[in-house]
Design goal:
264 residues; alpha/beta; 3-stranded mixed β-sheet; 8 helices; 11 strands
Length: 264
């Protein structure tokens, strides 16, 4: 049996993507075996909110609805993100080796794989130095305006952010890698004034001077994940019961914010 499992997913809605990640965390918590790397993207673009974030204070739900955006809550923390022009990953596993026992250890181990993949694609990526927004603004500010030592920069600008959720026995970490422009469009949906986000971030395209290739970066991440965690993966096949669980969670997430009227 392989030391880790892979889901190399097709683009999906925000509700579907978050439902699959939630299923994978539940699976890991119940002793689901080998770690799972999932690679995916969003279609249509979606706004995700941190687990504890107040939607009405963070974003303009009416503007998001008018533009046909999915709005969905993540199971991890952090603040609002617009998933557009990016590659997203999630890693779910039991707490402990090879991911370390502490939250910081896990962040850094996984970030090391992403940094290696980006560097192999021609991006001078490195772990970020911490920058923080003010306490007053942090409740509604987007993830794009801050970096921590767990996140990834290139040329002093953020290119990849991540968030993590831990239970008693398992964790999920998911993160976004900015391939091309798009995520800075969150300015339109934020409460308050957040102009100039594009000056704070960079993308694979901007750093390499060529069109970003989603498939190429997926393959590089898979290769470096295997190098770090144990060779070639097995594809994780979901059975009918798994799919039914995911579909139930997806349906609930679709109606959390939009149920015929705009709700906070």
């Amino acid at each position: 049996m392989a030391g880790w499992l892979l889901i190399d997913d097709e683009p999906a809605s925000g509700a579907r993507n978050m439902a699959v990640d939630e299923f994978l965390l539940n699976r890991a918590e119940s002793g689901g075996g080998a770690p799972v790397l999932r690679l995916y993207s969003f279609c249509p673009p979606a706004l995700t909110l941190g687990y504890h974030q107040d939607a009405a204070r963070a974003i303009d739900l009416e503007a998001a609805a008018a533009d046909g955006l999915d709005v969905v809550r993540r199971i991890t923390g952090g603040r609002a993100l617009l998933h557009d022009g990016e590659l997203t990953y999630s890693v779910t596993a039991s707490i402990g080796p090879p991911f370390g026992h502490g939250l910081a250890d896990t962040f850094l181990v996984i970030a090391g794989v992403i940094v290696s993949a980006l560097r192999s694609a021609g991006v001078e990526a490195q772990l970020g130095s911490a920058k923080h927004v003010s306490v007053e603004s942090s409740k509604s500010s987007p993830c794009l305006v801050s970096t921590s030592r767990h996140e990834i920069t290139a040329g002093g600008k953020k290119i990849s952010g991540s968030a993590q959720r831990r239970t008693g026995s398992a964790f999920i970490q998911h993160g976004s890698i900015l391939l091309r422009g798009g995520s800075e469009g969150i300015e339109r949906y934020l409460q308050g004034e957040w102009k100039g986000l594009s000056a704070m971030i960079t993308t694979v395209e901007a750093e390499t001077g060529r069109a970003a290739n989603d498939r190429e970066l997926r393959d590089r991440i898979i290769d470096f994940f295997g190098e770090r965690f144990g060779g070639d993966p097995e594809e994780l096949a979901l059975d009918p019961a798994d799919l039914a669980e995911i579909e139930g969670a997806e349906a609930a997430k679709k109606t959390e914010f939009f149920t015929g009227k705009v709700e906070g």
